[in-house]
Design goal:
InterPro entries: MbnP-like, MbnP-like_dom. The chain has about 260 residues and is mainly beta. The chain is built from three helices and 16 strands. The strands form four sheets. Strands 5, 6, 7, 9, 12, 13 and 14 form a seven-stranded antiparallel sheet that branches. Strands 3, 4, 8, 15 and 16 form a five-stranded mixed sheet that branches. A two-stranded antiparallel ribbon has the order 1-2. The two termini are about 25 Å apart.
Length: about 260
Amino acid sequence: MGRIKRPWVLCGVWGAGLLVLSGCGFLGGAQKLQVELRYQGRHVPCGTSLNMQGGGWYIEHSKFYLSQIQNEDGEPLDLADNQWQTGETALISIEQKDCWRDGEMAGNHEVRFGPEVDLSEVKRLRFVLGLPFELNHQNPLTQPSPLNLSSMFWTWQSGHKFARFELRSVADSWAFHLGSTGCEADSKLRSPAQPCSNPNLIEFDLPRPAGSGNTLVFHLDRLLEGITLNRDNSCTFHAGEMQSCEKLLANLHKSVIEWI
């Protein structure tokens, strides 16, 4: 498949013997999408207590992988290589417990594209929350960052946690760990030869918004719709959690991620 090319053109006017660039906001600058976590339409700042189901809930972990990012024609949009990304995957990490002193949140809040991508030409943004089978079950010790993080890995058999959300209050806690299930292998230390029976890959197809189109928003309240927060309603795909897992998977298939 082809790639989205950035049109390398000089635009501007000559003045006093110098070329003055105008209307070329992408020229020389990295193409990226900011990623925000919102609850009830409001950005969640670092260390904020969320007023949900009695109040006093804090986010301890909010991480998720995005992969197979494409345009409306199914052409891949290459990503920059850094500690949070490979050429085809990105880990978003919006942490709350490790706040920096200046009020910023530690982690990664953006998807940064390669130099050939021009986001202004993308009419629809398509991607998957999760990792494709061929990347999901490789040896994490030899994988590049961010596919080598033990906090986002189950076993070779099951693969990675595609998403990890954990909330805590003074008296209780709740967790959601998304990943593939029904992965058959000789042992937990072996990779499956065939795709898992429940890949649990969540596909998104987002039209270009009327606004600036430079932000992806993950709506935490939409993920939690219909879920009572307590340990018993957690979903880490263990026995006894099926009802909660089915509800959360259904919620993910709705408009949990928005392009604005």
